[in-house]
Design a protein that fits this description.
alpha+beta, Transcriptional Co-activator pc4, Chain A, four-stranded antiparallel beta sheet, 2 helices, globular
Amino acid sequence: MIQKEGPGWRLARDSLRHHFSVMIGGDDWAFELNEKEWVTLISIVSELIDQHQKLESQLMPEETICLEIGREAWWACLEGDCDAWSLRLVLEGNGNDQHLRGFEAFWPSPAAQSIAFEMKAMSKTSNN
């Protein structure tokens, strides 16, 4: 089991849990993801971080940006400036499948940066 946490965020991955192997959360909430949801989420978060890093040097100090990605059942938004940003995630539930559920998550800065970078790192660790 890999477990990480910091101010305003929590992240755990347990490969021995078959259905819901990943838990992400904030101070007073958490939810579990299956492997397919996790893989898609990591792809989206990585893409948002990469897009932000490409744009941050072009932003004036007072400028803000909002980057959005929708893929499969996920929608994600990174919003902020060149130094700090928040992260919002939405997983849309599917009423036709009792195993899919929906939720919305939000991390303000600096918790957003911390959990996003830890998610990327955890993904790389678990793929080795």
